[in-house]
Amino acid sequence: MVLKPIYEGEFTTSRLKPISHIDRTQVSDHLPKSRVPRGARVICWHEDPWLGSMSRIVAIADLDEERLLELPSPCRGCVYWEAPDAFEKGPNEAVKRDWIRKTREQFGNCGKILYLDGQAAGYALYGPSNRFPAIPTYRSIPVGELRDGAVFLACLVILDSNSRGKGLGKRLLQEVISDLRRRGFAAVETLARAEDANNPSGPRRFYEANGFRTKSVQNPEFPLMRLDLPPLPE
Ligand SMILES: CC(C)(COP(=O)(O)OP(=O)(O)OC[C@H]1O[C@@H](n2cnc3c(N)ncnc32)[C@H](O)[C@@H]1OP(=O)(O)O)[C@@H](O)C(=O)NCCC(=O)NCCS
Hints:
Layout: E1 16-18, H1 24-27, E2 41-47, E3 55-62, H2 65-68, H3 84-87, H4 93-107, E4 111-116, E5 119-127, E6 150-158, H5 168-182, E7 187-191, H6 204-208, E8 213-216, E9 224-228
Parallel strand pairs: 6-7
Antiparallel strand pairs: 1-2, 2-3, 3-4, 4-5, 5-6, 7-9, 8-9
This protein binds coenzyme A (COA).
The site of coenzyme A (COA) has 20 residues, from strand 6, helix 5 and helix 6.
């Protein structure tokens, strides 16, 4: 099979384009290594109108203790959800790495990193709700539990504000949803923010635009959003 160079295609908008016409498993071999980190999967390219005909490569990888270090500060040491007591004392990479290691042992993959041209540009963190001791501080119940098949999405962020609003957040969320569906979970829940766009997981309208419904408004500022995950066809 002859692979087309990644930059071929019709570039008419500044939105993301899928690479469905290319064998995704092989496409990484045709790109400079600096633009696709080891083990990451290319999911699409993104035309940047300011770069003219040059494209930007979007890739995704599972989050583990090593990849965590590719995130910029303070994200890579932020333990806001995972360890509120430690969070009070500032960023703590050791605590976060330990949390990721233990969560991966108990639950499996618990996050994704999105790369733009080889640089970490976004990040999502998820897992069983009992692994996030900050949840009760939101006074929003009932947050779904793993025994009922619900996974909690604690954080989803596109790091550079200039890269927001171009479809990257949607891509990242879709990868989280695909991961959880593939693993047979029944739902994903998150505490979104009613109005403000700046929140650990993002604004309510972002989740509504991605199929989530409001499960509870017990805390009106932070509605609990839920997406039921239909099982994959046999
Ligand atoms: C929320 C966030 C992840 C969304 O990612 P994004 O790349 O900007 O969003 P997308 O371009 O993929 O938008 C997807 C959809 O959500 C909607 N949307 C995204 N951000 C929105 C916002 N702030 N308000 C309303 N709708 C929004 C878009 O209109 C789009 O809808 P469409 O599919 O119907 O066109 C991103 O804006 C972000 O990281 N915000 C900051 C969050 C933050 O401060 N986190 C703190 C971490 S500690």
